[in-house]
Amino acid sequence: MSAYQYQALDHKGKLVRGVLEADSPRQARTQLRQKKLRPIKLAEANHQRVTENQGLRAFFQPRLSASELTLITRQLSTLVQSGLPIDECLQAIADQSRKRSMKALMLQVRSRVVEGHTLAHSLSQFSSTFSRMYCAMIEAGERSGFLGQVLERLSDYIEQRQYVTQKLKTAMIYPVVLIGVAIAVVIALMVFVLPELIGIFSHSERQLPLLTRVLIGLSDFVNEYGGLVLLIAVILFLSFRRMLRVKFYRLKWHQFLLRIPGISGLLIAVDTGRFASTLSILLGSGVPLLESLGISAQVLGNEIIKSQTIEVADSVREGGSLTRALSSSGYFPPMMVYMVSSGEISGELESMLSKAASAQERELEITLGTVTALFEPFMVVVMGIIVLSIVLAILLPIFELNAIVR
Length: 406
Known about the structure:
Receptor-associated Protein, 6% strand
């Protein structure tokens, strides 16, 4: 069966949209007529089946937000633990979904389950929505017979990841807004205010102070070439983003970021904490260690740390200990390595990884709070220096004129 999106007219001539399941377009039209609807448009839902020849499939597949994914996972966990069959659980979620794309997605997954595929395989057909880690955990839950509990842990994990991501975004909002406002104020002064105030000095026969001359030159440059500079900056930014799609340049850029003091520590804390939390929940769900290491490496953002994590997985595959592999990488904090070592010795690796991830998240939160607290006075000082320079550039010629008059 497939899911079809339709547009039809009811008995009052009102346009109705929706999604339904059918074996063929003809059967879908028959179902609509049975509901006393006159079909106008009927098309298979835009959730394509994954095949290796569909290179652009991920571009056309829908993307659920973290909150929507959490909601679906939580609902599925509750329904599965209540004893309902998987296909009925998916049907119930689809019926409750108000968003048409989400409903179509659930019906497409259900159609694959009805065809005899496992839930993990059915979800993996929509890789842009359900990550490799998500499908691996579902597969482990199906194999172990504890799918409901695994889904509950998975929903908790997604919520925690969403919380950490939101904290990072929130911490960045204030600095970005402050920098944007500062730049806008300086440009407004240069373009609209300074030409009027300093214009009277530019025609003076006396040589103006150096600071005033510099400010006049900057003001003239912004007025004459400001638009061109902005256009060039936009082109360079877009070119840079396009360049980062190439793995070679992305590696070089990430390597450069890891050499910047302050930023490198923040990036390492984010990725190592993400690695520990992902590995912990995968192991807790019954996914083998080697497979868990491979999946955990894929969720990291920095390509250099990701490659080091892949080397960790290779080292463990060759028979080495996880502790020694993490320690030799040089990117994982000593406390995390120590806790992993303790977990390997005691047989509680999952628990120790969870504690290590929590410790990393607390440390990251403290670091972000400190950086944000220091950034505010720093920007106040910088803006004070800029404003003072502008005021002095205006006042110095006035002081010289007063001195001449006296």
